[in-house]
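Appendix B. One record, verbatim.
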Amino acid sequence: MRRLRGLYAITDSALITPDKLTEAAARAIMGGAAVIQYRDKGTDTTRREREARGLLALCRAHGVPLIINDDIDLAATIGADGVHLGRDDITLDEARRRLGDTTLIGMSCYNDLARAEAAQAAGADYVAFGRFFGSHTKPNAVQAGVELLHQAKQQLDIPIAAIGGITVENGAALIEAGADMLAVIHGVFGQTDITGAARSIALLFKPQKPAA
């Protein structure tokens, strides 16, 4: 699988009704999303599996990885491309044992470079830092500074995602500092024009032509 880079669009059940989920993800992909993450904290396992399977079919059709947030059982059940783990989830070693060597495993590292280095050593495929800016989804999450991305880029060989309040206005600075991916929730799925919002952020990863 190609190196992860670009817009990492994360769904949110607070922003998208179940009947619009696949359509919303399709619009994000149309705008250039390189990765889709299914994030739903609900307890209806039947609904969540149905939604995740719909997203997986969509992502496979477009050659975009589908990552499942937190839920290793769901990821294993549907054969998702990957899983994203936080501090309170199962260990990376256990996730790798259950999901196999080809499944992408990402780790939330908040503002902790040592945690990211340990994740890389344990076989993580990417790490995520943040929040970098004010977040609609996690307003009380720990604050990460842009300097952390500079340090991480020097210390890590795996892709780095930045998350937390990212918009088209502030995302370029994070890419310049070392982010390979911008993980965005509200800045894509909270917008009226999902495709346009995704495209604006995805274009930040394109080399800028010098002014004539």
